[in-house]
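Action item from last week, closing it out:
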Amino acid sequence: MLGNFSYCNPTKLYFGKGAVKYLKDELPKYGKNVALVYGGGSVKRNGIYDEVVKILAECGKNVAEIAGVMPNPTLEKLYEGMEIARKNNTEFILAVGGGSVCDYAKALAVSVNCEEDPWEKYYLRFEEPSCKTLPVGCVLTMVGTGSEMNAGAVITNRATKLKIGHVFADEKVMPVFSVLDPAYTLTLPHYQMVAGIYDIFNHICEQYFSGEDDNTSDYIAEGLMRSLLHSSRMANKDMNDYEARSNIMWTATWALNTLISRGKTTDWEVHMLGQAVGAHTDATHGMTLSAVSLAYYRHIMPYGLKKFVRFAQNVWGVDPAGKTDEEVANEGLAALEGWMRELGLAMNITELGADEGMIEAIADSTLIMQGGYRVLTRDEVVKILKESL
């Protein structure tokens, strides 16, 4: 390992069936005025909302609800939540939902006491909070983002067609605790389940496809990918397979709690491409990633050939005997494509509502990252997007 780093992750996790009961241990540690943040009606239909509200009442909390957080949380929704939280003197934020709800809660936590426009401060200038941030707790109902154990928060500005994530440097932005009950994920539709699975896989890839040194983080990443491949196939056959779903949930957390990024550079260009597509189509995040991944990886493969060969052998079991490095790497990407099709993922951006007339605008919304094997030019972004149609 060549990189120097620090690592701190203060989030406490409660994992397993019935883990929501530990809210009774955690909630008394924080303020009386709670903002309960959640998405659509699913948490009410499946009974999770009632469980959480009952515990909040038992703990004597004053609850202000911020409902209707959408899959790609918008700036307008953030402003709405800030107003509600300020009006109710919020001291603690409890997110009940998937990654978007958790992301939103963290964005809200750094914005409630912010005297500046949070979009300008956090998402354009990428500054750290200079105000008091509110503590956040999460009850996770959908896996994929790893937001339950990191300091990331993605917000979409519909007016400017920008979807931007800020991974805050201050560990105080991380959830103070998260409740992970795999049973809560069993009611998800198949489309959402597999979108989450690919989000997990791509989080690992974004940290894996960079660097040339012998790095422990890459070995961990390969193990996580192999585990996810096995569990995803089990869950795809039987969505009620609790063991598979529990392993997927745990892999999601470790895929993006920053552990496997330590000591190395990271890429994240697939996310920039996917988020730009999402900003223009409002498509499901994991599907935007699957729709652009293969075109991107085929484009950068010559620049990071050794890692793509390693990926093919160590993750997909490709036999290198009698083959060139290019053949081995291409066989690995073919295996990736086969798995993606097996799950039923979106394989192009046309499926998500994009067309050729949108390519230039999507390219304008795509941020260029510096950490991968190739720093793209705008012309290359356009080329990749066209190949993703």
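Closing note: Residues 190-387 form a domain with the Dehydroquinate synthase-like, alpha domain fold (CATH 1.20.1090.10).
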